[in-house]
């Protein structure tokens, strides 16, 4: 998949504009066609995981905001969060932007590329949390949150143009309550992204009585 950020980088270079003018990564920067296709795959994956469209009352994806969710009528979705189409694409876009910024920066580009690979282990529990899941189709995603992985690791700078310094510091400046900075980040970040399944499961129970 060709991401919009790559196209912007090429255009900037052709125009003689500084390459660091590439916009920060956000999944809504994908073209409308890419977003439509991604949402179709997201909904279909949820429906398949639930056992069919009639068993997936909470399968949704907003192609404008890329808010998504999945909830089954008869089970809790058992698809790993980092493997859902939208979070996977969000990670891929962030990784592509990271590498584009390596090309624009001075210094050791090879090390920069290595850092991008280390912080963007997409489709694994080490991938950066995607802040795109919501409780309903009309709620806009958070998009940018602390740079933590799904297993709670602090990832440092994702180099995708988004300033997370205040977000990271607010989640790691104190451990007085016995909770580590990474745990706090997961509580406010990863858990927020993962809670869709829990909310959807509760909604599915209620929905089951309506069918």
From TrEMBL:
Pfam families given in the database record: DUF7707 (PF24808)
Signal sequence coordinates: 1-19
Name of the protein in question: DUF7707 domain-containing protein
Protein species of origin: Coemansia biformis
Domain DUF7707: 29-125
Keyword annotations: Signal
Residue ranges of the region described as Disordered: 152-183
InterPro entries named among the record's database cross-references: DUF7707
